[in-house]
Amino acid sequence: MPEGPSILLMKESLQPFVGKTVTEASGNAQFDKEPLIGQTLQEIRTFGKQTYLVFDNTAVRIHLLMFGSYGIDEQTKPDKSLRLSLHFKTGSIYFYTCSVKPADLEFLSTIDWEADIMSDAWNPGKAEKKLKARPEMMVCDALMDQDIFSGVGNIIKNEVLFRIGVQPESLIGHLPSKKLKELIAEARNYSFDFLEWKREFVLKKHWLAHTKTICPKCGRKLIKKQTGRGKRRSFYCEKDQKLY
């Protein structure tokens, strides 16, 4: 599943279409696309793993899910995986194997933009307050909670916990105050590192724990285990990451 930094890169790629008017809209997403024709793409907003294409009087929410993708100015025949295609005089955008839903403009005002880990509006104090309200939650679940860390996915989770030396099954309420603040800060720091490495096509070269088998610090074998309520893959070192 694409994480927040990858969604920002998609936004950058689609930015040239902002200010352009839709001439044709199609695809098998289950909503009426006819009203989009003639509307101007006013802006593109991202919230974690979600992208909002904002038009004159409506918006379209894109979530790439696990295997979604997008294309620009492709010369391919549409297939059953095409959820939405938007055509402009200057080019076309295609979204595949993803969730595409209409959204009222009013709905955008209800989103907690301060929870977006990569947003200028990011509020670490609010994240800390939300975490302290759930002391029995595992840190692996906390980092993946989109209401707290919108945009964080499994890669970021594993790398952040390795960076700060915390085992994924540690409980939020057991973390010292300093370590809790470190968790919050590193979630944002690593996300921006992720963005730069992804932009340079070197992201995997910088992974220290995710999908790895040997700890780069002590040389011991890393533990691979499904952790938390979501049973997502965690990679961690029992020696260099403390269980709180």
Query: Element order, helices and strands?
Result: HEEEEEEEEHHHHHEE
What is the CATH first-level class name of the largest domain?
Mainly Alpha
So what's the overall shape?
Answer: elongated
Taking all Cα atoms into account, the compactness measure Rg is: 20 Å
| Proportion of helical residues | 25-40%
How many domains would you count in the coordinates? 2
The CA-CA distance between the termini, in Å, is 28 Å
The CATH topology of the largest domain is: Helicase, Ruva Protein, domain 3
| Uncertain runs | none
Reported CATH architecture of the largest domain = Orthogonal Bundle
Output the structural class: alpha+beta
Biggest sheet overview: 4 strands, antiparallel
Figure out the total of helices: 6
Task: Please describe what this structure looks like.
The chain has 244 residues and is of the alpha+beta class. The protein folds into two domains: 4-108, MutM-like, N-terminal (N-terminal domain of MutM-like DNA repair proteins); 113-236, Helicase, Ruva Protein, domain 3 (Orthogonal Bundle). Helix content is 26%, strand content 21%. The protein contains six helices and ten strands, in the order H-E-E-E-E-E-E-E-E-H-H-H-H-H-E-E. It has helices at residues 4-14, 105-108, 124-132, 139-144, 154-164, 177-199, and strands spanning 22-26, 43-47, 50-54, 59-63, 69-72, 82-88, 91-96, 99-103, 223-227, 232-236. Strands 1-6-7-5 form a four-stranded antiparallel beta sheet, covered by helices on one side. A four-stranded antiparallel beta sheet has the order 2-3-4-8. It has a two-stranded antiparallel sheet with strand order 9-10. Strand 9 and strand 10 (232-236) form a beta hairpin.
